[in-house]
Every structure is written in C-alpha cells, then in structure tokens.
Inverse folding.
C-alpha cells in the first residue's frame, strides 16, 4: 500500500516514514526538499497518485496566528482537494491536544485545520496528541542565551515521537474513523525540569530561568490547557526513559 506522508522529512515525519516501511508499505514523502510545496495545489497534484491514504504531519515554524492559519488552511485544502480527485480514502491528520480550545499563535492554525476536517462528511481521521519528547530539545535550541538558559513555564505530558508515528500508521491502514481518542504521554511534567534533564545529558548546567510565555497560548500552557483529558490513551515511555536511550 502506498501511503503519502506530508511533512515526511520533519522530526515526526521521518519516524512515520520508518513506521510505514516497517509495516511493509511504501511511503511517498511530500516535502519541500522532495520538490513538493503543500501550499501549492499544482505542486501537490503529482504526489498522491495511487495513494489510498495520506498522513499529514506537516507544520510551520511560525508562531504568528495569521501565518499559521494561512499555512494550515492552504496545505490542508490542497491535500483534501487533490486527495479526493486521486482517490484518497483516508486523510489522517495530526493535531495537538488543546489546540482547538486555545486557538492562538501556532495553535490557531491547528484549530483551523481541525475545523476544516470536522465539517467533512467522512474520509478523514484526526488524531490529537500531546507534545513530543523531541519538543524539549527543539525549545532549548531556540531559547538559549549564553550561560543562561530560559525555560518556559509549561505543564505538559509529553509522548515519544515513535509512539505517535506508530499510531498514525495504524490509523492510516484502517478505514477513516473521524476524530479518534487523544494520545498522550504517561506522565505530567514541568518544562523547566525537562530542560534541566536534557542539559545534564549534554554535560551542561547553565542557570535556568523560568519565564511565562505571553498571551493566551502562554497562559493555557501554564494552566494545563495542553494536558490530556481523562479519556486519553496513554503511551508508555516517559521522558526520562526516552532521554536515556538518546
């Protein structure tokens, strides 16, 4: 089975491609490096031929609500339009727990993407997950300042990217299921403490300064707005366990 992976060269996308191969299927990677611009319908058109399923893990580096909404509405619309014409039966989209409620900053784009899918009569699967373990290192690289490390005040329940990738592939080879059970990590964490663990693994011990992120998104992250609800399915690997095998 050919499975298109939109964003297949990203942190999660690479792991999705690995899981597609491990399951005995053929991944078709849609990314800029492969020559596919998801925001251009004509560019997308050649990539979905003979792909009954699409896994969309694409993303944008912006924190602007308007830019995020523009990216996700354009890319999602193109994948859905071309997918319908190409015979895609299951459009599997990855979203973020809490995005629809926060609807600000980057999350505004994910909220818009969710709205586009929810009005469809079928043909899609929407999986919301919590932040990935890999998210910690990405934020450290963005927020370092010489001998001082800034860490956002954030409650989160991170999950291993490999567990998310496996879940997405399992969903892709099944009939479209609409909104499915949220997927979260096994344990609630405090981001500054995860920063300290990550840096210790790198033999670094800078002074960590905890700061609140601004705006509605920052408040939601401090107040538990990105934590899973009681009905979420939980992964198995904690951040400490994941970090230990890196």
């Amino acid at each position: 089975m050919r499975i298109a992976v939109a964003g297949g060269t990203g942190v999660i996308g690479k792991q999705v491609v690995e899981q597609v191969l491990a399951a005995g299927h053929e991944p078709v990677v849609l990314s800029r490096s492969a020559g596919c611009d998801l925001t251009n319908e004509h560019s997308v058109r050649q990539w979905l031929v003979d792909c009954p399923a699409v896994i969309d893990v694409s993303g944008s580096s912006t924190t602007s609500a308007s830019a995020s909404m523009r990216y996700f509405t354009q890319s999602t619309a193109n994948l859905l339009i071309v997918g319908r014409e190409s015979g895609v039966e299951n459009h599997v989209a990855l979203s973020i727990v809490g995005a629809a409620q926060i609807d600000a900053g980057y999350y505004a784009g994910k909220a818009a993407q969710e709205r586009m899918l929810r009005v469809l009569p079928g043909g899609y699967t929407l999986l919301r997950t919590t932040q990935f373990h890999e998210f910690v290192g990405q934020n450290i690289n963005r927020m370092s300042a010489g001998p001082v490390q800034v860490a956002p005040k954030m409650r989160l329940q991170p999950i291993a990217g490999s567990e998310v990738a496996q879940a997405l592939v399992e969903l892709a080879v099944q009939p479209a299921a609409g909104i499915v059970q949220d997927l979260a990590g096994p344990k609630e964490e405090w981001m500054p403490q995860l920063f300290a663990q990550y840096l210790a693994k790198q033999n670094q011990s800078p002074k960590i300064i905890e700061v609140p992120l601004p705006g509605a998104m920052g408040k939601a992250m401090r107040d538990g707005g990105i934590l899973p609800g009681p009905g979420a399915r939980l992964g198995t690997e904690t951040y400490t366990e994941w970090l230990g095998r890196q």
